[in-house]
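User: Run a structure prediction on this.
Assistant: Running it now.
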Amino acid sequence: MSALATLSAYLPTGPGWLPTWQLIVAVTATLNTIGSLTSVAASRKLYNNAPGLVNPLQSRTFGIWTLTSAVVRFYAAYNIENKMIYDIALFTYLFAFFHFGSELLIFRTARVALAVLSPVIVSTTSLIWMLTQYEFYVRP
């Protein structure tokens, strides 16, 4: 069995591309968790307008928050038609959008940079995608 065939056996089998997107975002969040748990460097890139406020405790807390979101998104990738899981996954993106948006616009602990724009773009794209495709994936 080829490596590609082995890998594809673990990919979500739900309809459309949203389940695969959920998996990609979940894997990325898991990798970000490792960075947040082992160093403050990644968190300082996110909160780049106030890096002095980032300490090991804050970075680890952010890492666990990110891991929690990743677990929900993993579940959504493989259970995309489950209304409760879909709704909870949707909320993880809403929370991320408000968190990073407020750090940029209200608290000003972040300024526009790739490290900050990436979660804003992912959360916005995911929110729009999930809201517009709700009826397709979640059937009453």
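The mean pLDDT is 96.
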